Amino acid sequence: xxxxxxxxxxxxxxxxxxxxxxxxxxxxxxxxxxxxxxxxxxxxxxxxxxxxxxxxxxxxxxxxxxxxxxxxxxxxxxxxxxxxxxxxxxxxxxxxxxxxxxxxxxxxxxxxxxxxxxxxxxxxxxxxxxxxxxxxxxxxxxxxxxxxxxxxxxxxxxxxxxxxxxxxxxxxxxxxxxxxxxxxxxxxxxxxxxxxxxxxxxxxxxxxxxxxxxxxxxxxxxxxxxxxxxxxxxxxxxxxxxxxxxxxxxxxxxxxxx
Length: 258
Ligand SMILES: [Zn+2]
Prior knowledge:
This protein is of the alpha+beta class. The chain has one domain (8-257). The chain has twelve helices and four strands; from the N terminus they run αααββββααααααααα. It has helices spanning 3-6, 31-44, 55-65, 107-114, 119-130, 132-137, 140-150, 163-175, 178-187, 193-200, 205-231, 247-257, and strands spanning 67-70, 73-81, 90-95, 100-105. α2 crosses α11, α5 packs across α8 (163-175) and α10 crosses α11 (205-231). The two termini are 16 Å apart. The structure holds zinc ion (ZN). Residues 123, 127, 164, 167 line the site of zinc ion.
């Protein structure tokens, strides 16, 4: 990849902290398409864009409110708490026996949820929302094994197509939506903003810092697409059918024409 060519595009810009390698996703995403998904997810759970997320309330509402669509069919999502092994703190998988997706957290990650740290849960929700077909194709053990193997294939796929990058960048957008940051920006002194972002949304400093950088870089596009989703009468169940889904590819083409 030529970093000079993609520097101005909303992906692949030094995401190592937030981008451990996963699998190649079926579709590419950009910060803009992920913002749309993030706003839609908050609407689905009726959580205002400037509010921190109540993790336990979200957990309890998942079986009733969260769906993920595959080929036009909406599938429900169950949750459970159990040991996962191999140092894993959360997992999203397809349970073919019950025909639902399943999000699991360990006791430790559930305890963090009770303390207001929602990152682990939102990351798994993003996998269910963004990668349902992939999850249906793979057993959970296969996902781990494949991701581990692909980590050693240099340049196997770019960040915009990486499942872990997508889940992380999407989780950051859900937890700290651009509209929420914008409202904070209007109330708080500039030099205090980063710390307030970190405290208000209960995220690690490195996550707040990265999200703040993304916000500054793509602010007007992020706010425009957020307003679009907020104003639309129909709640988008999934961005898969929207023109924004191809944003990454379109931007890539435009970038290479420069
Ligand atoms: Zn993941």
